[in-house]
Structure formats: C-alpha cells, structure tokens
Request: fold
Amino acid sequence: MSAPDPIDAGRLHRLLVQPGELWQRIRVVDETESTNSDLVAAARAGEVSGSVLLTEFQSAGKGRLNRIWTAPPGSGIAMSILVHPFDVALARWTWMPLISGLAVAEALRRAAEVPADLKWPNDVMINGRKVCGILAERVETPHGPACVIGIGVNVGLTQEQLPVPTATSLKIEEAATLNRDTIVATILRAFALIYGQWQSSDDDAALAASYLSRCSTIGRQVRVVLGEDRTVEGVAEAIDASGQLIVRTESGSRSFGAGDVIHLR
Ligand code: BT5
Reply:
C-alpha cells in the first residue's frame, strides 16, 4: 500500500485563512503526544482564537474519560481547533461538542460521500461503526474561557489496522475521496458555518433541528453508561434546548448532559 500524501499546511492555509474569518493559523507537526494537550497548553499561553493543529501521528492521543485514541501514522486526521466563543453565554456552550460532531458528519457526507450520522453526543458513525471521535475541552486562557476541540477521523485504515472492532474508516466505507487536505478543509468550513450561526443567534431551535436530522440515537432503545456500574436504559426521546439527551425510562423521563450511549436495537 502506498503511503498517503502528507497533510499540506500551506495548501490548507491558502484555502482557509483569511482576515476576518474564523481560521487564523494552521500548523502541522510530524508527531506529538496529543494535539489537544498541545493546543490546550498553547491556549493557556495566549494562542489566538481560530488556531488549528494537526499531526501525522499521536503517541498518546486522548479520548474522553482518560481513554486512548490510537491510529497508525498517516492513517487519519488528528486535529485540534481552538475557538473563543466570546459573545456566547457559558450556558450555551453545551452545544460545542454537538456542533463539532454535526460539522464532521456534514463534511464527510459532502466531501467523502459516505452516509455519516451521529450517535449522541458526537460520535460520527457510518453504518453503525465509529469513523470519528471528538473530545471538547474547556480551557481558561488570558483572553477568557475558550474551547479546544479534538477531532480524530479514521481515513486510510484497513480492517486489520482498526484499533477496535466497533470502528470503521473512510477507506473501508469506500469513500469518494481519501484526500486528507480536502476532508480537513471541508470539516473546517462546515464548522465555521455552523459555529458562526450558533454564535450570532440565541435561538438554538434551528441548530437542534439540524442536529436531529443527523442523529441516529433518537427513537432508539439505548443504554446510557454513567460510571463503572451505573447505567440507565430507556428510549431516547429528544434533545432539549441545551443539547441534552432525554431518555424515557420505566421511572420517567431523564436528561443527560454527558455519558456513553449504546444503541441497543
Ligand atoms: C473519543 O473518545 O472518541 C474522542 C477521540 C478524540 C481524538 C482526537 S484526535 C485529535 C485530538 N487530540 C487528542 O489527543 N484527541 C483528539 P471516546 O468516546 O472516549 O472514545 C475512545 C474509545 O474509542 C477508546 O477507548 C477505544 O475503544 C475507541 N477507539 C480508540 N481509537 C479509535 C479509533 N481510531 N477509531 C475508533 N475508535 C477508537
């Protein structure tokens, strides 16, 4: 198998970085432990909003809840983005992980022509298997609170290279393109669009509707895993105004702001 073309920071810069637009700085490093850890540290040191950091290989990629994200060198997209939603009330920041998932799902549909959808809150799935994981972290910076969002997309992994059997890749799903520059640019454009709409309007109803149109969790029997031996089962009914998942259980409806969801049937 031939090696993939390296991600081209210069090309991405030409495509995306413009004064007055969201994206201001795009860097690619050969290898690092975790792009999220690096960008969180940079944000604390004053890095500008609209910074994007990509790498060809992470030696200690982070998942949620201290889990690990792994992928062979050059096999995917490992990217973190830094944004300062200055004008947005903190109470609405609960939408950030969902906006990110929605942007990736839309971008993979558009650029790679795959039927990507979302398992609440932000796992991007193709045919029930995970193609992208997202880790959103809030960080205190000299400019105020900010958000670092880590996006890992499996692009060229073969079946044998998948770290877990529940994963998939764009290659396995016979995507229309495996060009990582194209996919990164499409994700960043989609994010800028949805994020811009969220930032400029307090009405989250349209956002919730867009999210719901891509979310495969609603209407399903689910198990929400809250801790080692704490789980809740029921039917996923809705997403509320802050992006929380509402589940109808035997003892009534409950809402969840975080947690791992398993689709049961
Ligand atoms: C996530 O966590 O899905 C968030 C992953 C975020 C990764 C990006 S890459 C760029 C940025 N820098 C970082 O350091 N991280 C971000 P979670 O939902 O906890 O899922 C982690 C679980 O998914 C692991 O415990 C494995 O079971 C599984 N997993 C690990 N690598 C995977 C992969 N490449 N594809 C699919 N599943 C994977």
Residues 180-200 form the longest helix (21 residues). The radius of gyration is 18 Å. Residues 34-36, 58, 61-65, 67-71, 78-80, 130, 133-135, 150-152, 154, 163-164, 167 surround biotinyl-5-AMP (CB under 6 Å).
